[in-house]
Write the structure tokens for this entry.
Amino acid sequence: QVQLVESGGGVVPPGESLRLSCETSGITFSFSGMHWVRQAPGKGLEWVAFIRHDGTTTFYADFVKGRFTISRDTSKKTLHLEMNSLSAEDTAVYYCVKDKGTTSFDYWGQGTLVTVSS
Amino acid sequence: EIVLTQSPATLSLSPGERVTLSCRASQIVTYLAWYQQKPGQAPRLLIYDGFNRATGIPARFSGSGSGTDFTLTISSLEPEDFAVYYCQQRTNWPPEFTFGQGTKVEI
């Protein structure tokens, strides 16, 4: 049974930082590319970042380049998202998602809510 | 950036009806997927690479299309199919992923 469990969300003031984590089980993490996808309250889905299965390559959406960093710890089967210089526009549920063939997303966590507010 | 436009925004239907959802891309798309999202839940992959059903997805869901025009068809609506449906594409290089704005299928 595949489980992706996000943590680390919360309320943070504008300009501050936050680190999200995603513990995985039921997947071969070392062979799996991983993504973060977010969804602002009442809005649609927005891809944030991708990391290759071996951690050698990352890609980011333009709106987070230079502010967010995706990383992984294969020994702990855990994915991370370091978010800096947060603004109100970053308020969203952040989903940890497993890559399928680098074309789609086949397993999703339940998400963690990040609220950027003073 | 490739923009995906889904239509209609909302569909009001009854169980048993046939549903056709449209996803139109601003440029030619190679890889297209469809997702279903129910309130308070994470999205679920339905169709990938245009027409392949994901694991465990019932046969009443089918995907078709190519180029810039894609369709998700539900042959006969079940009560559990009332949800929001999103299409999603990936550009070739560098890989970037974008979603349509969603179509809500409601009773």
User: Anything to note?
Assistant: The longest strand of chain A covers residues 92-100. The CA atoms of residues 40 and 92 of chain A lie 4 Å apart. Chain A has a mean pLDDT of 96.
